[in-house]
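Note to self: keep these together.
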Amino acid sequence: MFKLKIMKKVLILLIAFSNFLIAQEVQKVEVVRTDDQISNLFDELGTNEIKLDLVDLIAFPAFDITYEKIKNPYSSFGASLFLNLTSDDGSLNWTDQFSFTPFYRFYFFNKEDYGGKGFFAEVFTKFSSYNYDVEYYNNNPDPTQPGIDYWEIVTEKSFGIAPGAGIGRKWVNKLGWTFEINIGVGRFITNAQMEDAPRPGVNIYSYRPEAIFKGGICIGKRF
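Structure:
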């Protein structure tokens, strides 16, 4: 009987010690969200987004607003509207006055993200109305005015279409506020027209753009 009691106590101690060891083990559990769970996450924030470009607002100033529709966690589409708010072009040789730029994006992100955020690549087409300078140089300057080698600078107006591509990154917080940095380039396909010299013996230098730069720093809200 005495030995039986000792064996019971030993067994109880072994069970207690085993439970203690199990309690000390730390198990790492990896949670992988499914596409449905990711969709639910960004649906809570909304699939529509409005954002404003701060660079254009400060630099020109100009009003550059973008609407983006989150199609799914991996892609979106939308358009940007640019309106120059000043008639003074400063020292620029060409500048946009108005432009409309539709785009389509592909997002690349980790599974813990809300969707429609992270790194992205996009394709776009820019439709723009812009001003540019044309310099008319005289091959035979007036000898009575040394140092004067041109006689006129004219500001012309034009309309262009420029397809292009770009990359960027977007951050989204839990309240739906977004911060975005993007950059892209495109090329005009409508610049065949050339300026005519007003008279023989005049050289022409045109600042009509052949390529365009697209970029910005935007703050927006998803809804």
